[in-house]
Design brief:
By secondary structure, the chain is an alpha/beta fold. The chain has 6 helices and 7 strands. Bound molecules: glycinamide ribonucleotide. Its EC number is 2.1.2.2.
């Protein structure tokens, strides 16, 4: 049997998507496992979840570096230390730099139907625009902000009484399933490119 795909998951907040990956990885025969969790800030629930599951963690804070390029280099090195096959940005609220992207294959999950509403406020921006359907997108990460090739999406209807919080919670229910399915498919196929539509656009 092939070794499980090694994942490094990057988080900034509550880490419910991380938890879904950790839980799915405990299935006997799961084709992936979370080998490290990285964050851009201390004291988050996401890091606590990792520690609680015995997963090594690292923190790489932008303000601790003189330049953004230094931070990018340090983050790339910390990720490399865990020797991942794939990096998953799951609620990581920083734009990854060129060094990380040159050295690592990265996917991201975003709470809107890209290419609409990229950026840090996908849920709020969709509501403000007045769309009736939004959702979530899993995509490869490239140098832009949420511009990489789309791997999968799920749609969610916006109800009249929704707030940003209620809508985001409903999106996250579908988002967690989507992310686990995408990672499982990537771990099983490992082609990174080809007829399954999972191309990273890099090779
Ligand atoms: C997720 O909805 C993710 O799509 C979003 O943050 C949430 C993290 O939730 N990411 C972005 O908005 C990135 N632009 P979690 O910490 O509970 O997994």
């Amino acid at each position: 049997m092939t070794d499980p795909l090694r994942l490094v998951v990057l988080v900034s907040g509550s880490g419910s998507n991380l938890q879904a990956l950790i839980d799915a990885a405990t299935d006997p025969g799961a084709p992936f496992r979370v080998v490290a969790v990285g964050a851009d800030r201390d004291g988050t629930l996401g890091l606590e979840r990792a520690v609680g599951n015995g997963i090594p963690t690292f923190v790489c804070r932008v303000p601790d570096y003189t330049t953004r390029a230094d931070w990018d280099e340090a983050l790339a090195r910390l990720i490399s230390d865990a020797a991942p096959d794939l990096v998953v940005s799951a609620g990581f609220m920083k734009v990854l730099g060129p060094t990380v992207l040159a050295r690592h294959r990265v996917i991201n999950t975003h709470p809107a139907l890209l290419p609409s509403f990229p950026g840090a406020h996908g849920v709020r921006d969709a509501m403000a625009h007045g769309v009736r359907v939004t959702g979530c997108t899993c995509h490869w990460v490239d140098a832009g902000v949420d511009t990489g090739a789309i791997i999968d999406q799920r749609a969610v209807r916006i109800e009249d009484d929704d707030t940003v919080e209620t809508l985001h919670e409903r999106i996250k229910v579908l988002e967690r399933d989507m992310l686990v399915e995408v990672v499982r498919a990537l771990a099983q196929h490992r082609t990174w490119q080809g007829p399954d539509g999972l191309s990273s656009g890099r090779e």
